[in-house]
């Protein structure tokens, strides 16, 4: 079971921020062999959803209010440590993130930019494809909308 916490950027401890950046780099840069600028200047505007297991960060997302990233609210930087995926933590962190959007931003209109190979995962969370696939940082992505 994950201990899930939601924090604004200025409420993250240095250790939490380091753990977030380490996990994102571990997955998005090293595992996916993708050189890109993860530090995009948007973290300060996001709410950060942190999933801890035994006090170690193993799952994470960041969410944005409507109009910041897309017209709709958005969830991004969805990541679960490689050795933790078999426990379903991706679903746990995403369901928590959807709830955070609904509670904090009072909307269920959520758009994500999903890696294409994860379409089925997001379909299982009631996201549907919206448009055609495109390349983002050399990885095929598709825009998806939440349909509760």
User: How many E-type strands?
Assistant: 8
CATH top level label: Alpha Beta
Average pLDDT figure: 94
Describe the sheet with the most strands. 8 strands, mixed
- Overall 3D form: globular
CATH second-level architecture: 3-Layer(aba) Sandwich
CATH topology: Aminopeptidase
CATH superfamily: Gcn5-related N-acetyltransferase (GNAT)
Instruction: Note the gap between the termini.
Output: 24 Å
Number of domains: 1
Our count of helices gives: 3
What is the C-alpha radius of gyration, as a whole number of Å? Answer: 14 Å
Oligomeric state as shown: single chain
Strand fraction equals 25-35%
Low-pLDDT ranges: none
Order of helices and strands: EHEEEHEHEEE
SSE topology:
Blueprint: E1 3-8, H1 14-31, E2 47-53, E3 56-64, E4 73-80, H2 89-105, E5 110-115, H3 119-123, E6 127-129, E7 134-136, E8 139-146
Parallel strand pairs: 4-5
Antiparallel strand pairs: 1-2, 2-3, 3-4, 5-8, 6-8, 7-8
Task: Give an overview in words.
This protein is an alpha+beta fold and 148 residues long. It has one domain (3-107): Aminopeptidase (3-Layer(aba) Sandwich), CATH 3.40.630.30. It contains 3 helices and 8 strands; from the N terminus they run βαβββαβαβββ. Strands 1, 2, 3, 4, 5, 6, 7 and 8 form an 8-stranded mixed β-sheet that branches. Strand 2 (47-53) and strand 3 form a beta hairpin. The longest helix has 18 residues, at 14-31.
Summarize the structure.
This protein is α+β, with helices and mostly antiparallel strands and 148 residues long.
Could you name the key traits of this structure?
single chain; eight-stranded mixed β-sheet; Aminopeptidase; 148 residues; alpha+beta
């Amino acid at each position: 079971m994950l201990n899930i916490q939601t924090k604004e950027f200025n409420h993250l401890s240095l250790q939490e921020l380091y753990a977030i950046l380490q996990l994102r780099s571990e997955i998005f840069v090293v595992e996916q062999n993708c050189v890109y600028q993860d530090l995009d200047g948007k973290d300060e505007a996001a709410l950060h959803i942190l999933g801890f297991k035994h006090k170690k960060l193993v799952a994470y997302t960041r969410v944005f209010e409507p109009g910041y990233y897309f017209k709709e609210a958005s969830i991004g930087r969805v990541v679960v440590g490689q050795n933790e995926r078999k426990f379903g933590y991706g679903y746990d962190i995403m369901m928590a993130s959807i709830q955070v959007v609904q509670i904090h931003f009072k909307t269920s209109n959520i758009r994500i930019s999903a890696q294409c190979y994860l379409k089925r995962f997001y379909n299982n969370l009631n996201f549907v494809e919206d448009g055609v696939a495109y390349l983002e940082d050399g990885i095929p992505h598709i825009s998806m909308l939440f349909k509760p």
